[in-house]
Amino acid sequence: MHDLTGFQRDILYVTTGLEEPHGLAIKDELDDYYEHEINHGRLYPNLDDLVNKGLLEKGELDKRTNVYTVTQRGLREIEARREWESQYLEDVNAPTPS
């Protein structure tokens, strides 16, 4: 996961959390998070990069719609990232001594 951009990590996280992760659903979630519209020219090449890296699989929902699923490798990468982040963030919510 260390070689992904922040945007690609966000795509991976969003894809993991959606029930039916097709391109427009992923785009809508990212639009909300980034508070501005993500254009197709940015989203789809990054989805393809994640497929090529083996973190997502791409399938057809219908003739016009692709659906993306996170691979086992992608899930392992997410878990490894969360463990790495938690070592730096575990004290963030700890109460401060008086």
TrEMBL record:
Q: One Pfam family from the UniProt entry? A: PadR
Domain annotation Transcription regulator PadR N-terminal: ranges: 12-79
Q: Which domain of life is it from?
A: Archaea
Q: Which Gene3D superfamilies match?
A: Winged helix-like DNA-binding domain superfamily/Winged helix DNA-binding domain
Q: One MF term in GO for this entry?
A: DNA binding
Under InterPro entries, the record lists: Tscrpt_reg_PadR_N (IPR005149), WH-like_DNA-bd_sf (IPR036388), WH_DNA-bd_sf (IPR036390)
Q: Which UniProt keywords apply?
A: DNA-binding
Question: Does the record's keyword annotation contain Transferase?
Answer: no
Q: What is the protein's given name?
A: DNA-binding PadR family transcriptional regulator
Task: State the organism of origin.
Answer: Halorubrum trapanicum
